[in-house]
Write a structure and sequence with these properties.
heterodimer; A: mainly alpha; about 75% helix; B: Formate dehydrogenase/DMSO reductase fold
Amino acid sequence: MTERFEFTDGIKKTLYILMVVGLVGLLGSFILYPENQHSRFWTNLLINSYFFTGIGIFGIFFVAANTLGYSGWISVVKRVVMSLSGFVVVGAVLTLVIVGASYAHLHNLYDHWMIEDHRKLLDVTKQTFYNPTFWAARMVLYVVLWVVLGNRVVKAFSAKNMNDKAVYKWSKLWAALWILVFAVTESFASWDYVMCIDPHWYSTLFGWYNFASYGCAAFAFSILLVLFLKSRGYLAQVNENHIHDLGKFMFGFSIFWTYLWFSQFMLQWYGNMPEDTNYWVKRFNVPTLKFTIFLALALNFLFPLLVILKRGNKRNYKIIGFASVVIIFGHYLDFFNMVALEPNAVETHHAAKHEASIQKADYTLLAENKGAKEAVAAAEAVATTEAVAATDAAKEEVHATEAHVEHAAEAHGEHATEAHGEHTEGHGEHAAVTSYVGLGIFELMVLAGFVGAFLFMFFNTLSKEPLINESDPYLKESLRHHVEYA
Amino acid sequence: MHAYESDFREPLINGLDKNYTKITDDIVGPTERTYKGWWPLMIIFGALAGLFVFCLGWTVYYGIGAWGLNKTVDWAWDITNFVWWIGIGHAGTLISAILLLFRQRFRTGINRAAEAMTIFAVICAGMFPVFHMGRVWMAFFIFPYPNTRGPLWVNFNSPLLWDVFAISTYFTVSLLFWYSGLMPDFATIRDRANGKTRKWIYNILSFGWTGTAKQWQRFESLSLVLAGLSTPLVLSVHTIVSFDFATSVIPGWHTTIFPPYFVAGAIFSGFAMVETLMLIVRKVFNLEDYITVNHIESMNKIIVLTGSIVGIAYITEMFIAWYSGYLYEQFAFYNRALGKYWWAYAWMMSCNVLSPQLYWFKPFRRNLWITFILSIFVNIGMWFERFVIIVTSLADDFLPSSWNYFTPTWVDMGIYIGSIGLFMTLFLLFCRFFPVIAIAEVKSVFRTSSEVAKRERALKDEKQNGGFVGHTTFGILDKDDK
């Protein structure tokens, strides 16, 4: 029961190869796609850093939730799930790199508000929230909390004398604290990592939606890694009952993800308000993205529904293992769909201008309604009308060219420069340039590299302590675990 | 079977005097005699149920004008009450189905009463939209069927129609779930019955259950199928209720977080109502050994979890409203918190978000008086939540000239208070004639989770270690139980 995982050179070698593939992918996308300040490189870096960090913090969350929920079954696989968090420190460093580079204007991921001229066009509330320093401080706070508190919590969960009631009680307090911190930080982080790339769009569901997405992937990784360890002769105590339970969680979270996807999409589609639908229209206008959005839906919903609903399939190592691979890829795609469009297919900040003018119109109306005396300057009103008209024209252009990204971006560019030449400077360089928006070989290579790094950190963490904590008060329940129903 | 259970778990059945006979005696007992206080309560709540019928009759006779609605606030207490009752009706199926899937054994002590509560709450909820139709005798118009009114179909695009399907399905499945679970217990009551008539009635109620292996096998598979069906159902019902609001473009309603947040709120209020009722039931019927402080503590943990989820959702909504820069949304939220209905918002926030935070601390979770008071607070808070969402968004709409204030009439109040009367009347009848705890289910955890089983296991361990402990008392442990 005190068996430890040995991180052999053979495994390391495989992971090094994966990481080299990833590095080549990163370099290739950096060199071959210099458009928009190497946007293809940076989007790849952001998508993967965020996705795998999310999986890591979810691993701690899941063990914390089970600690508070008095789970017995999880005891034998607890360390595997917990060790997913090994990558968080790498994710934290990469996050700091992204934040620093953003500050130095080395990439365009957060240009909508990182560049002062653009920020001015946003609504005042967004200017406050995305004040670069405030944003950077938040980002640093998240990753520091995740690394420092995360390590402390994992340590509390791995105590050597867990069958001591006082120690056990402390592990529950740490679990509660983690859940609290996680709930708040992951919600805010989802806005600060991803939603802010397109600050015009917002969805209250977004944080929970992200949570469900990397949750599915975390279960998939847990299943795959337990199966891998078993195939290497470790974890003989784990049997199909434990895999079944992990599989149920993976299935349940897949359905939960779909529920949130549907809630978000359906409500915005049904409401049909431009500030909501804008996000979807832009994506559906890019054929490759439209494809990957529906592919993600198929892989993350239809596939689990058809394949792992059945009890027997969740207990079949081959089927559940294959399903896990598909689900990891499906949720990677989900993040890809959220991030890849904006930085790669740069639109001008036309939409921002549009937002500002709508705002002005709103305030004008309100002022009139309240019977306020101060009249809104005529010149401003004219400017507003012009801006709105120009936007409408640009929109028509977009529809007319029927979803051809490059054309659309160009059209936007022209109109923007015409309409707001005097207000907006230096937009030309960002307008009309589209790098590759789609899932290509470099995306897959970078994904492979991150999988390598993720697994390296995982195995490294795993090998430091015995695979099963003998002092766990629920260990005996876990050893005798048998799933009676469902 | 799960014969082994960690010592770290508290027993779910207290008392060393317990055995299978004693469990039957304790639970069936209340159905065999009328408790003191049952009649006065029945008269009070029966009278309130009468008020309900009277006020609905008044509404039908006089028209919807009897309510305090005006041209701006055309939905108020009626829809608030509807959503409130539907929310309360969530705990039963959650306990039966989802806690079953999560193997939470504490559900066995409370699932029966919670399911009954679900049924009665959904009955109360259903009354509000039906009578809001005005011409209630035309209620069958909501069903889509080929008709003689020309090619006139219901509006399939409307979430209100989805509600019709969601709630009727939910009600049917919950009823089946509840009733099928009752069958073996009715048979137990029948087998102990003295009078011939009583025997005959409970025999019919139990569908002639004899407890053969085949019947149990069918019973088990039916429970599993119903649990599988009702898990998505319980989530869908409140999701669709939230769509009633979120599909619109009214500021304060049109937000994507509504579906999961409404579901969390429903679970929150459902558990609060279960606590309110169970704390009284366990006392009156002397069932403290079956609905233990451990059960109450577990429910309080769910309360603090769902209360905090709801709290995060409130804050998220408010934050995004500010962040969006969308003026009307900003106004809606400003108005909610500081407008003319600020008092309702204050009730909502303090009851739903602040008060459950006490449950982070164990002494509060295990204090029955605090639990009782807080459970009522949560019920109040959840009523105000719906009122705040619905009325504040409507009352101050896009046109300041039509801004209005909603004041309920005596009919509004009569219907609401009356619906509580109807609910309590049904619940009192249930307590008097039906076993309030699922006998067969509680017995199923006796061997693993009772104090008796834990004691025997301890004795056995001691014996193995060489100490003399005499004979074990009931021999209830499995052979392989070590």
